[in-house]
Specification:
Order of helices and strands: EHEHEHHEHEHHEHEHEHEHEHEHEHEHHH
Radius of gyration: 22 Å
Largest sheet: 7 strands, parallel
Strand content: 5-15%
């Protein structure tokens, strides 16, 4: 079949970013009746060597999608000392090193399609943290769209930062008053802002650059649902440019094999879940990079035990650099005798297939780090969240879920693993609340499950947003 057009995607190598990017590209291919082809360039960071094979496994069965390799070990790469000072600053420096190589790749791709009967490359879709690559799209006359794997809370902060910088000209401070963010009714507590905005070693300026480069993009494709964030989307679209197109939920609902999962042990966990009553189990999981100190783990375990609730806890060892002494197993982090006391009522496992667990009828609540992908997965399956954010924009998300949308139970919105300790009593209170049958959060989330699914159906809000985007790229002759 003749190709109608081709898009080039630039993705960050974080698991959440790569998976979301690939799934969004796949959705566009499906909507085009396979007349659209996609080439995806995934940035290479020494800190995430596992992403390349993972991305290849996700795209292997898609004939209209190809991964484009970048060279390894290029000159001028920042050291891990830069990474320790600022993760966003490090990422920004790595992308700048790759920029000439990306330019060569795009130039070669365009040259290879110069024949009159070839199908043109019609645009660039880039992760928001690949903002400097907008220059490459501009150089080759290609419209650049930003793909945001997160929702409007983080976008609101990015839109706000250039204006604030003009007025103040420096990083945020923890002593700052709460910040009014565009499209968010309640001022954002300073402690709910991402660590990067306080960072003087590249973090703050990396975020500032993202907000400043928005104006150079033709549009923002946001992994959110209009009905979920209608107020914020409408406000941002009426006061800021470029336009936000809600295109979510973009989800990867098929569990992938994982090297940390012991199949035999996981089958026992699945069997245990099958035996539990509907909506009776609390699931605790903190993402691909989330971990807690041993002290916090003990408080969480004590609260779980005291709550009397059934639970499945995906508990992982913290990085060695964060924990002294070093633990050999997660069992060593738990209170003495905990596993024996909760036997039959609770299960502690290592890595778990989050989507598969959330889809299980026995799961009735989700204690989550509030990463955006996890939020959308919980809404898809109608599972209410208890907030325990850990890093990045997760505190921002948690605040909006609790204070703006009323669709999460607050364990802690502004939790900082380095500064805070959530007590067992707080844990017990939050878990007891979320499992009450008449909890308003539970009712709202159940209704949002249907709304999120309808958004992707023909005539739904996200379906129409994708149509608008595709028409901009391919002209009015494009149709589903």
């Amino acid at each position: 079949m003749k190709k109608a057009a081709e898009l080039i995607f630039f993705s960050m190598p974080g698991v959440g970013h790569v998976v979301s990017t690939i799934e969004f590209a796949r959705s566009l291919i499906e909507r085009s009746n396979s007349q659209l082809f996609v080439s995806i360039v995934v940035m290479k960071f020494p800190t995430t060597p596992f992403v390349d094979p993972y991305a290849k496994s996700l795209t292997a069965s898609e004939p209209n999608m190809q991964l484009v390799d970048l060279p390894d070990n290029i000159e001028g790469m920042p050291t891990l000392e830069v990474f320790k000072k600022s993760v966003p600053g490090y990422y920004n420096a790595v992308i700048e090193c790759y920029k000439p190589h990306v330019r060569t790749i795009v130039s070669d791709m365009i040259s290879s399609r110069s024949a009159p009967d070839s199908v043109p490359i019609v645009g660039v879709v880039l992760d928001m943290f690949c903002d400097s690559l907008i220059d490459i799209g501009t150089e080759f006359g290609l419209p650049s769209y930003v793909y945001s794997p997160t929702g409007t809370p983080f976008l609101s902060l990015m839109f706000h930062m250039p204006t604030r910088h003009q007025q103040i000209g420096s990083e945020f401070s923890l002593s700052d008053p709460a910040t009014p963010l565009p499209g968010i009714a309640n001022p954002m507590p300073t402690k709910c802002l991402p660590d990067a905005v306080f960072n003087k070693d590249g973090g703050y300026h990396s975020y500032l650059n993202v907000g400043q480069r928005f104006k150079d993009a033709k549009g923002i494709l946001a992994n959110t649902i209009y009905e979920l964030e209608s107020h914020a989307v409408d406000y941002l679209n009426s006061h800021h440019t470029p336009k936000i197109h809600p295109v979510g939920p973009v989800l990867h609902l098929k569990s992938q094999p994982h090297p940390d999962m012991q199949q035999g042990r996981w089958q026992k966990v699945t069997n245990w879940l099958d035996e539990q009553a509907e909506s009776s189990v609390i699931f605790l999981c903190f993402g691909s990079s989330g971990s807690l100190s041993a002290t916090q783990v003990k408080e969480l375990a004590t609260g779980l035990e005291q709550s009397g609730q059934k639970f499945l806890w995906s508990l992982r060892l913290p990085p060695v650099k964060l924990e002294e002494p070093q633990f050999k197993s997660v069992e060593e982090m738990l209170p003495e005798g905990f596993l024996e006391r909760v036997e039959g009522r609770g299960v502690v496992c290592g890595w778990s297939p989050q989507v598969e667990v959330l889809a299980h009828k026995a799961v009735g609540a989700f204690v989550s780090h509030c990463g955006w992908n996890s939020i959308l997965e919980s809404l898809w399956y109608g599972v209410p969240i208890v907030t325990l954010p850990i890093y990045a924009e997760q505190q921002l998300n948690a605040f909006v879920l609790v204070k703006e949308l009323g669709i999460a139970v607050n364990l802690r919105m502004d939790f900082s693993p380095k500064l805070d300790l959530i007590t067992a009593d707080e844990v017990k209170t939050a878990l007891t609340s979320v499992m009450e049958p008449d909890n308003e959060v539970r009712k709202k989330v159940k209704s949002l499950s249907e709304i999120s699914r309808n958004a992707l159906k023909e005539g739904g809000s996200s379906y129409n947003s994708i149509s608008e985007f595709m028409t901009e790229l391919l002209g009015s002759s494009w149709s589903d």
